[in-house]
UniProtKB/TrEMBL annotation:
This is Cytidine monophosphate-N-acetylneuraminic acid hydroxylase. Keywords: 2Fe-2S, Electron transport, Iron, Iron-sulfur, Metal-binding, Oxidoreductase, Transport. It catalyses: CMP-N-acetyl-beta-neuraminate + 2 Fe(II)-[cytochrome b5] + O2 + 2 H(+) = CMP-N-glycoloyl-beta-neuraminate + 2 Fe(III)-[cytochrome b5] + H2O. Its EC number is 1.14.18.2. It comes from Oncorhynchus mykiss (Rainbow trout).
């Protein structure tokens, strides 16, 4: 059982309590400057942190709220109804954690329940390290090799191939011996199922040589089968002992507990914290003064807003939004690092590029933060923290880095080493995706009904039109173009007459059919920039996207059963396409063969 304690985060005397107005009250603690929201109605009080659960933004008064119950996040404009502690934009998403209240002599104390820090269960005093005893080698993106005494541990090996279908490609060229290093690992940690961390092309190569290598993943609601030696790690229990000096612990993310994890590795009392892609790891409680901290930094890991059109989504609006988002992320990461005060900080897990020629628009639009700029910001606000901007093959010697005064602790790759990739074998991977286009199941229109029944999302007022397109998102003649009404999971030929939200999703045919055929999550389409979207009204439907991005059945559709049942499905009402300007599927395949390089 996880131990808990509580602490008072804000104290109001009787006069301050009496002065609270009906509705929303914003308060700041004079002790640490943290902000809180108190809602008053009929003499009853509710309180919460002034912090959005999505990405930690600050709430302000929502000028569109006429009832005085809603606040708006300054980051992504999410809205919270403080009277119910439910988020209303996006609807059906999160519930805000309510603070406890203690009354005393007419005054009020707001109390936060603190989950006990599990890494303190069995604390160890740091022992002296010898030169070369603990080294950290950057390979590429989020992949680090840790030499920890006699054990070698590797984080998130994405060493070859694309991620998110064909949308992400490695920016940095991994060292030539990276795959050999991976095969020599004593243990591997994979933080989550996104394919820039759980890379099947990489693991396929690994399994040919080391099918029994121990791989550790967090016990999320959607664990992935990896290898004969893989293990699911429960969260926040204790540090798992690997040998006399090495142990580690996997923690989950508060915002995406079904998906993201982070890890604490400890060797001889020295801690390495890797928060990976977590938005709010371990409910915001993390160890301070660790020896090395690593985290993401770049941004741009979403199709929004680059893949959206219509309404406000002009090029100038997109550019301003992206610029502001990157700045907010940069400041948030700098503040987080400053608050945790690690001895050394390394930004990683953001070194990808939209390299395929057909994604040139995304590459030019989806600007990202630079590691050098984040490290400069950290040095300005916290000069005592050593920062490291990694290059492929660069090695950090922890013993040297901790010496005072420290000796040169980082060994860069030899002069002339190719840092950036300049070729990606596009044909090999794109052709594999496009093979799904001619799969037998897509010769029968009733695959649509079979697929969405398998997906299991319904009883939600949303109508979606899905259109198969070529590389340039032009609809394909004889490609599928259909409506799905998720209120009753029907497939009408026209939009219903009732009032309903509507989304139009254009998907590249090869990727869409690959996703459908294999029962994959729609991250390949959305995060991989393989679709284009418009919506009426402009509202993010969290329940819909969360289902198709994280909650699809773990076992894929039974297409063999479908093909056996085709006659019965064919007798059902079939969705019909609409006439559009288009190219043929055969023309698309010919075009793909001659343009992909």
């Amino acid at each position: 059982m996880t131990a808990q304690s509580s602490k008072t985060v804000l104290t109001l005397d009787s006069e301050a309590v009496f002065s609270l107005k009906d509705g929303i009250n914003f308060k700041k603690s004079p002790d640490d400057g943290k902000c809180y929201i108190i809602y008053k109605e009929n003499g009853e009080l509710k309180a919460c942190k002034n912090q959005c659960k999505h990405q930690g933004g600050l709430f302000i008064k929502d000028i569109e709220d006429l009832d005085g119950r809603t606040v708006r996040c300054t980051k992504h404009y999410w809205k919270l109804n403080v009277s119910t502690m439910q988020y209303v934009n996006p609807p059906d998403s999160f519930t805000q954690d309510e603070l406890g209240k203690l009354s005393y002599e007419g005054g009020l104390q707001l109390v936060e329940v603190i989950v006990w820090d599990p890494w303190l269960a069995d604390p160890q005093d740091p022992q002296e390290l010898q030169e070369g005893e603990v080294t950290v080698t950057y390979l590429t993106h989020a992949c680090m090799e840790l030499q920890l005494g006699g054990k070698k541990m590797i984080f998130d090996p994405w060493l070859t191939g694309p991620a998110f279908a064909r949308g992400w490609w490695l920016l940095h060229e991994p060292p030539a011996d990276s795959m050999e290093r991976l095969c020599m690992a004593d243990l591997i940690y994979i933080s989550h199922m996104h394919s820039d961390h759980l890379s099947y092309p990489t693991l396929k190569s690994l399994s040919a040589t080391r099918p029994d290598v121990p791989i550790y993943v967090g016990d999320t609601s959607r664990p992935e089968p990896l290898s004969k030696g893989s293990s699911l790690m429960p969260f926040s229990c204790c540090l798992r002992q690997i040998d006399e000096h090495l142990r580690f612990m996997i923690l989950k993310d508060e915002v995406h507990p079904e998906l993201d994890t982070c890890i604490i590795v400890e060797y001889k009392g020295h801690m390495i914290l890797n928060t990976v892609d977590c938005t709010r790891p371990n409910y915001g409680r993390l160890p301070h003064n660790v020896d090395l901290m690593m985290s993401d930094f770049a941004g741009g890991a979403s199709g929004f807003p680059m893949t959206f059109s219509g309404g406000k989504y002009t090029e100038s609006w997109k550019a301003d939004f992206i610029k502001n988002e990157r700045k907010k992320l940069m400041n948030y990461k700098a503040q987080l690092v400053k608050s945790l005060q690690p001895k050394i900080y390394c930004p990683f897990a953001g070194y990808f590029v939209e390299a395929h020629p057909s994604d040139r628009y995304i590459k030019e639009t989806n600007t990202k933060n630079k590691a050098e700029e984040l490290n400069a910001l950290i040095k300005k606000s916290a000069p005592g923290i050593t920062t490291w901007t990694p290059k492929p093959g660069a090695v950090l010697d922890l013993a040297l880095a901790l010496m005072s005064p420290s000796r040169k602790a980082i060994t860069d790759p030899p002069s002339g080493t190719n840092i950036y990739k300049d070729s990606w074998d596009f044909d090999l991977y794109v052709d594999e995706l496009n093979r799904a286009i001619t799969a037998e199941i897509f010769k029968h229109k009733s695959w649509i009904q079979f697929y969405y029944i398998w997906a299991g999302f319904k009883n939600y007022n949303l109508v979606v039109r899905v259109i198969e397109t070529d590389e340039d998102f032009i609809p394909i003649a004889n490609g599928y173009n259909y409506l799905v009404d998720f209120m009753d999971l029907s497939f009408p030929t026209q939009r219903p007459t009732r009032e309903h939200p509507y989304e139009e999703i254009k998907n590249r045919i090869g990727v869409m059919r690959h996703v459908v055929k294999n029962g994959l999550l729609w991250d390949d389409l959305y995060i991989g920039f393989q679709n284009r979207l418009s919506r009426e009204p402009d509202v993010y439907h969290h329940r819909f996207w969360n289902h198709f991005q994280t909650e699809l059945p773990v076992t894929g559709p039974d297409w063999d059963l479908f093909l056996q049942q085709v006659p019965s499905y064919q007798r059902s009402a079939e969705p019909q396409g609409i006439q559009t300007e288009s190219v043929s599927a055969s023309t698309f395949l010919e075009k793909a063969d001659c343009t992909v390089s």
